Design the sequence.
């Protein structure tokens, strides 16, 4: 590992040059094929330089993790929890510097970057003490002098593949419980956020997690990521946890399925927000702006379809457009007040600029058509370098049909579609009207609407009078349909994803007792005592 001077982007910091991290050693530093992670606000700033992980590297990492599993699984869970507790302390101590690196590498506003790191701190704090629980059960037996117990056992080698938009929070949701439960990990972070991944993984080592328990292989999805998925077929991986697009997630699920493994799949979204006629409009407008344009729409929980009751739709749109004028884009490294920074990568930028074609096809009414910010044509209050960064303005389409491709497709940029509805039935049908089911929200003060929304929405997560975003480390996070396979991150629920149940029968009878076959019955009779009081039989 070394740090290279970064002459063109020196105001941002140095360039990390590093190899994969396998069994406590750097591997592949001299690989011919390398890739770089660039600061999306200033593309001359090379944040990190990494080898492209080959199938051989992936295999080596999986075998190392398999070896390390033998010892790690036997470490008492409270002791494993102590290491996670120390990880939390280190994250807390380094929160500001990690947040700055995170912001530099993926362009997230600093206060959101701090939130990203804070989520990992909260997750470590939750799982620190979970090492002292990881409860099983004692279960009564149907036979005498026999007792039954259940235990959670670790799964083995966990392959973890993550997207770049929550580069510390989301990996922490997977790696912390996986390690706490006694598993070992091979992590392929996003190519967009490999430097912050390196920093996060280094903290596991500093926290006292033994070498080989957490291994990191860098590289692009179609090559290195695919090699890690292929490792399931080779018998090198016992569990895969994937966060990313629905298209890739489905393929990961197929490979896991044919190996009879249950993957954790956290995928895309086209999240709806409903605003009913009785809503507090000021609150709803502010919530919609944050849901849609916060993080430049590059959150899996970003708002996609804004479903407005037609009685308030015009008023809402006017207030929304007034508030959009106050938004403030720019370079997060030098301006703490931005609403959102650049697009994370060229791929997201291209997809955003191309999504307008779907709007044309849908016959949507264009109220704001987002475009790339160009030098000399920057919006008011813009504080970045338009030529060097991947900046865009926001989009708003009105009169969109929920069945159009525009309303059915995740864009992953600052864009929303307004769908106007006449009543609650139409609103909930539109909210449930895409194949996704990650997050959702409703603004209303009517208890009947609230109750109906909670019980009828098919998304895995919903908010009443709040935005479509906002996870907490002790609440289950995840979606249904194209948004995931029903497994959940966070809290006690995620433990099911990283352990398997074992049941133990302990027979102290000294003889051969056969459950079901030799189980005692109870003798009973007719309920004669109460018979006179009951109505006569007809
Ligand atoms: P992506 O699927 O292209 O990439 C995600 C990860 O998978 C990256 O590490 C990538 O390198 C890897 N990858 C890509 N192709 C692969 C392949 N063939 N085999 C194995 N790995 C492969 O996703 P993206 O476009 O970079 O990220 C944005 C997507 O992630 C959006 O759809 C967003 O909604 C989703 N996301 C979901 C959640 C969630 O918790 N539900 C959180 C964050 C992001």
Sequence:
């Amino acid at each position: 590992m070394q740090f290279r001077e970064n002459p063109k982007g020196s105001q941002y910091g140095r360039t990390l040059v590093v190899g994969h991290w396998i069994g406590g050693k750097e591997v592949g530093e001299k690989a011919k094929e390398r890739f770089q992670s660039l600061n999306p606000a200033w593309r001359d700033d090379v944040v990190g330089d990494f080898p492209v992980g080959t199938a051989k590297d992936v295999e080596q990492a999986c075998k190392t993790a398999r070896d390390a599993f033998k010892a790690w699984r036997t470490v008492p869970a409270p002791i494993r929890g102590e290491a996670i507790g120390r990880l939390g302390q280190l994250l807390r101590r380094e929160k500001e510097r990690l947040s700055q690196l995170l912001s530099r590498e993926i362009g997230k506003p600093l206060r959101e970057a701090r939130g990203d790191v804070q989520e990992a701190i909260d997750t470590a704090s939750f799982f620190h003490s979970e090492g002292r629980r990881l409860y099983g059960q004692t279960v009564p037996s149907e036979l005498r002098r026999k007792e039954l117990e259940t235990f959670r056992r670790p799964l083995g080698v966990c392959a973890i593949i993550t997207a770049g938009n929550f580069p510390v929070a989301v990996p922490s949701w997977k790696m912390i419980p996986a390690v706490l439960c006694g598993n070992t990990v091979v992590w392929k972070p996003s190519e967009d956020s490999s430097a912050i991944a390196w920093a996060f993984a280094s903290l596991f080592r500093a926290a006292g997690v033994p070498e080989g328990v957490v291994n990191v292989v860098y590289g692009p999805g179609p090559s290195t990521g695919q090699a890690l998925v292929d490792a399931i077929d080779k018998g090198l991986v016992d569990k895969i946890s994937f966060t990313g697009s629905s298209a890739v997630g489905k393929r990961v699920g197929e490979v896991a399925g044919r190996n009879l493994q249950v993957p954790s799949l956290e995928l895309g979204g086209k999240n709806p927000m409903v605003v009913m006629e009785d809503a507090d409009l000021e609150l709803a407008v502010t919530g919609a702006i944050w849901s849609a344009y916060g993080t430049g729409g590059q959150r899996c929980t970003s708002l996609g379809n804004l479903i407005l009751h037609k009685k308030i739709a015009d008023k809402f749109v006017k207030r929304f457009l007034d508030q959009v004028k106050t938004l403030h884009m720019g370079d997060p490294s030098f301006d703490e007040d931005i609403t959102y920074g650049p697009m994370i990568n060229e791929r997201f930028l291209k997809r955003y600029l191309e999504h307008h074609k779907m709007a044309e096809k849908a016959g949507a009414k264009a109220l704001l058509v987002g475009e790339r910010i160009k030098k000399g044509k920057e919006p008011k209050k813009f504080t970045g370098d338009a030529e060097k960064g991947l900046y865009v303005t926001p989009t708003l389409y009105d009169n969109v049909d929920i069945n159009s491709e525009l309303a059915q497709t995740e864009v992953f940029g600052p864009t929303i579609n307004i769908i106007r509805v006449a009543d609650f039935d139409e609103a909930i049908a539109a909210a449930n009207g895409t194949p996704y089911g990650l997050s959702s929200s409703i603004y209303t003060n009517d208890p009947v609407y609230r109750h109906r929304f909670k019980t009828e929405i098919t998304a895995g997560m919903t908010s009443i009078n709040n935005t479509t975003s906002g996870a907490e480390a002790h609440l289950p996070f995840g979606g249904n349909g194209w948004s995931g396979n029903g497994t959940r991150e966070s809290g006690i629920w995620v433990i099911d994803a990283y352990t398997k149940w074992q049941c133990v029968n302990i027979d102290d009878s000294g003889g051969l007792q056969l459950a079901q076959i030799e189980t005692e019955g109870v003798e009973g009779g007719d309920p004669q005592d109460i018979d006179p009081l009951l109505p006569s039989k007809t």
In short: Residues 161-166, 170, 188, 190-191, 220-222, 225-226, 229, 243-245, 248, 266-269, 300, 410, 412, 438 surround nicotinamide-adenine-dinucleotide (CB under 6 Å). The first helix runs from residue 55 to 72.
